């Protein structure tokens, strides 16, 4: 089959294109540009790329056109496919129809922690010999790629469920672990992607209003998660975070499947005793440790190379989903967890030059910013921590979380804001960086705005000292500042 992707250079679309190529199809794809890292990756995977957008990319006529949600309804290439009668689908429908069939999907949803939790769960299942498929919105370092087809089982072969046998709980097929994005599916179907992934085992990490361009109010955002929970069948399993009031309320109201709660010691549990409990036991440069309790029984101390309480929660969620959902022995899973190396762009150390550590992280929501900085401070207790933040998403560039950002930077020694990443937001709705700088100063934080990335590089090179850490926080490429800063630090040393 010849499959063509319109908007192929996005993280999710590119990975799905790789899955189709891995399955033996001819895969072509178009986009406005093919910048690193996705451009070179597509070439490595054997995807035939076509720069620009136009109907001519549909020659020869493909058997299926996958249209990315970046495409607007007047996109000429998407329009030509639809009007020309070529079979077409969104990314979510293409994954569900052509990849998930014959698998047992493990879908990780939530405002925060989706990518890391998905990657951990995929690695635990792989280490246990389940040969899962997966699609992750980042690059898990243990795999070296963000996608993999599952082992297809002979007819009648199934993985046993953990726990008590039940007449309504069939044995599971091979797992497919996928990140359940709540963003909308396509211009021709305005429903959350995660609704289409047929979850049999589901994780809900957190629910905090986001994506205001799609969900104008909290009620619409909550409805997306309610619909996701309702789609987990009665024979399935929902692994849900007891420390989030919204998660607890929605799960109580909408779950039809068995629910396993998880939490960290000290969390507000909202009336839900956790099946999976972690008691933090210290964090340093080697990572995070916690004591694991399963069903109220002490299992032992668990180690992970990841830092921070939020990553301990991600690990708990993955353990619950894989062990309780697919019967993986706890000893096997915890041993594999210790070998999990993390995900690119999640607290990723890009380099240490002249004694200054430069980290890259995807954090953009205030909660993610707070947790990331706290984790880096726990990892490096000495030295200054520079937080360089680019507000770039439709939500981050608006004043929706103006007050929350003030507290998000509490563990940083110094905060620098890059210019807003969007220029099409009215001034009355936009995040006020001057007000934010003043509010941070009132809390005793040294904060400032920078007019350009060059100014940020000059500031860090002037003021950072050996032993300091720099966190570059953005959900985009941040103008290639990572390489520019490392090069400038190297030049400073010479």
Strand segment count: 23
The biggest beta sheet reads: 10 strands, mixed
Structural class: alpha/beta
**Mean pLDDT over all positions:** 91
**Biggest sheet: strands side by side, in what order?**
8-7-9-6-12-13-14-15-16-17
Please supply descriptive tags for the structure shown above:
ten-stranded mixed sheet, 24% strand, Rossmann fold, 14 helices, 494 residues, Protein-Tyrosine Phosphatase, Chain A, 3 domains, 23 strands, UDP-N-acetylmuramoyl-L-alanine:D-glutamate ligase, alpha/beta
What this model shows, in words?
- The chain has 494 residues and is α/β, with parallel strands linked by helices.
- It has 3 domains: 2-90, Rossmann fold; 100-337, UDP-N-acetylmuramoyl-L-alanine:D-glutamate ligase (3-Layer(aba) Sandwich), CATH 3.40.1190; 348-493, Alpha-Beta Complex (Protein-Tyrosine Phosphatase, Chain A).
- The protein has helices at residues 11-22, 38-44, 76-83, 91-98, 114-127, 218-230, 245-254, 309-326, 330-337, 366-379, 402-408, 433-442, 453-463, 481-493; strands at residues 2-6, 26-31, 48-51, 64-67, 88-90, 104-109, 133-135, 147-148, 175-180, 184-186, 189-192, 201-204, 237-241, 258-264, 276-284, 287-294, 297-304, 348-353, 356-361, 385-389, 414-417, 446-449, 469-473.
- It is 31% helix and 24% strand.
- Strand 16 (287-294) and strand 17 form a beta hairpin.
